[in-house]
Amino acid sequence: MTLAPPHGPQRELRPLLAPPAEIEERLARAASLVSVQMSSREASDLVMLGIGAFTPLEGFMGKADWQSVCEHMQLRDGTFWPIPITLSVEQAVAERISIGQEVSLCGPGDLIMGTMVVHELYGIDKSLEATEVFRTTDSEHPGVAKLMAQGPVNLAGEVTVLSEGDYPVLYPGVYLRPEQTRSIFDSMGWETVAAFQTRNPMHRAHEYLAKVAVEVCDGVLVHQLLGQLKAGDVPAQVRVRAVDALVRNYFVPNTCVQGGYPMEMRYAGPREALLHALFRQNYGCSHLVVGRDHAGVGSYYGANDAQRIFDEIPKDALVLRPLRIEATFYCRDCDGMASVRTCPHPADSRLLVSGTELRRMLSAGEEVPAQVSRPEVLEILREFYTGG
Ligand SMILES: [Zn+2]
Fold it and tell me: Is the domain of 105 the same as that of 208?
C-alpha cells in the first residue's frame, strides 16, 4: 500500500488502547489505584495516544524527551517531535506516588480513562517550554496560560488507554481512528490525501482551499477538531452538521471524507502546525493544507510563520508535505474565488467577512451574501445563533 507511513522509525501505527476483551477487568483493577485527575488537554492527549494518532509515543514524556522536544524538536532517540506531550499533577498528589507505581488516569467527571506505570516524576522550567514552544511567556496567550496553571510535577510513563471518552458516542461516523481513515482511503483507492484542518464552520473561502487540495491530491480529509475550544467558538456538534451539509452538497463524493480528532488546541502557531502535520501522517495523509496563521491566536505569530517552519526542520523529519495556500476570498472583479496569489485587484474588490461580523449578522437575522457562505451552512448556523 502506498499511503504515507505512520510517523517514527517503525512506520507502524502504535495504538495504546487495551484490547476490548480486557477493558472491563482493567477498569475494575484501576478503581483501586491512586487516581490522577487529568486536565481536559491531558485527557484529549491520552485519547490521541490511545488511538495511535501520537504514534510512536508510548505514553507521557519524561524529562529528557521533554527537554529535547522543547529545544530541538526531537525525542531523545532522534525521532522528530515538535510539542511536549506531558501530564502534570499538584505536589500533594505527587507525594502519594513512587517510581514503578501504577496509577489510574481520570478524565472529566471522574471517568477512568487509562492507567500509567510511573517511571519518572520531575519538575520543568515552564518559561523554557513557553519560550521554545509558544515563542512567548505572555500569560494572556491561552496556551501559555494553561501551561502556567498546570501542576508543578510532571509524571512520565507508558500508558494503557481504557476509554475514548464521549467522542465515539457524540460524533458517530465522524470521530475516526487513524486505522479507520487509512482503511477508508485504501477503499477509495487514494494514495495522496491532503488533510484540511478546521476548528470553524467552513465557508466559501475554506471550501475553496479544500478544493484546491482536491485538484492536486487524490482526496481531501476535512479534519475537524473535536476537543475543547476557546469560549465563543461554534461548538463542535453544530460545526460537524454545518461541515456535513457543505461536504454533502458541494463535494464530489469520492474526493472528500469528513473526520474528527479529539485533540485540544494549544494555539502554538508554527510548532502546532508541525504537530498537526505529524499526526495527520499517522491518519494516512500525505499533505496538510497550511494557510495563514495556522493554529495561531491573536498577533503572537506572523501570518506565514507556520508555513515557513516546514523549511526549517530537517527534510526527513516528516513524510507529509505542507500545501501552502494564501488567504482566499471571493473577488467581485475576478467574479469568483481567488487568493492573494491569483487576484490582482484592490482590497475593496474582495468580499471579506470576519468570523465576528458573520456571527453578528446571523444573530441579527441579516442576509449573508451567498459568496461568503453556502445557504445550507448558514441555515444551521442561524438556527444555532438565534436558538431557533
Ligand atoms: Zn480579483
Answer: no
Alpha carbon distances (Å) from 67 to 74, 196, 258, 319: 9, 30, 36, 24
* Cα 345 to averaged position of ligand 1 atoms, centre (Å): 4
Count how many domains the chain has. Answer: 2
Domain identity same for 178 and 321: yes
Q: What pTM was estimated for this model as a whole?
A: 0.95
115: containing domain: 20-164
Q: What is the pLDDT of residue 118?
A: 98
What is the reported pLDDT for 145? 96
Q: Which residues of the chain have pLDDT under 50?
A: none
DSSP state of 133: I
Nearest to 179 by CA among 50, 85, 81, 289: 50
- The answer on 314 and 180 residing in a single domain is yes
Determine the distance separating the centroid of ligand 1 and the alpha carbon of 349, expressed in angstroms. Answer: 7
Give dist(CA 380, CA 374) in Å, integer: 10
Q: Is residue 268 situated within a structural domain?
A: yes
Gap between the Cα atoms of 221 and 3, Å rounded: 13
Ligand 1 mean position, distance from CA 308 (Å): 26
Domain boundary residue among 138, 164, 190? 164
Q: Which three cell numbers stand for residue 362?
A: 446571523
Query: Are 252 and 156 part of one and the same domain?
Result: no
Q: What is the DSSP string of 196-222?
A: EEESS---HHHHHHHHHHHHHSSEEEE
Tell me if residue 64 falls in helix, strand or coil: helix
Residues 315 and 226 in one domain: yes
140 and 180 both lie in a single domain: no
113 plus 149 within the same structural domain: yes
* Length of the chain measured in residues: 388
- Among residues 310, 326, 342, the one where a domain terminates is 326
Ligand 1 centroid from CA 173, angstroms: 38
The conformational region for residue 15 under phi > 0 = left, psi -120 to 50 = alpha, else beta, is: beta
Instruction: Answer whether the bond into residue 56 is a cis peptide, omega within 30°.
Output: yes
Q: How far is the CA of 341 from the centre of ligand 1 (A)?
A: 10
pLDDT in tens, 249-306: 999 999 999 999 999 989 999 999 999 999 999 999 999 999 888 888 889 999 899 9
Per DSSP bridges, beta strands 350-351 and 328-331 are antiparallel
Query: What amino acid positions are annotated as catalytic residues?
Result: 199-200
Looking at the structure, do residues 190 and 143 belong to the same domain, yes or no? no
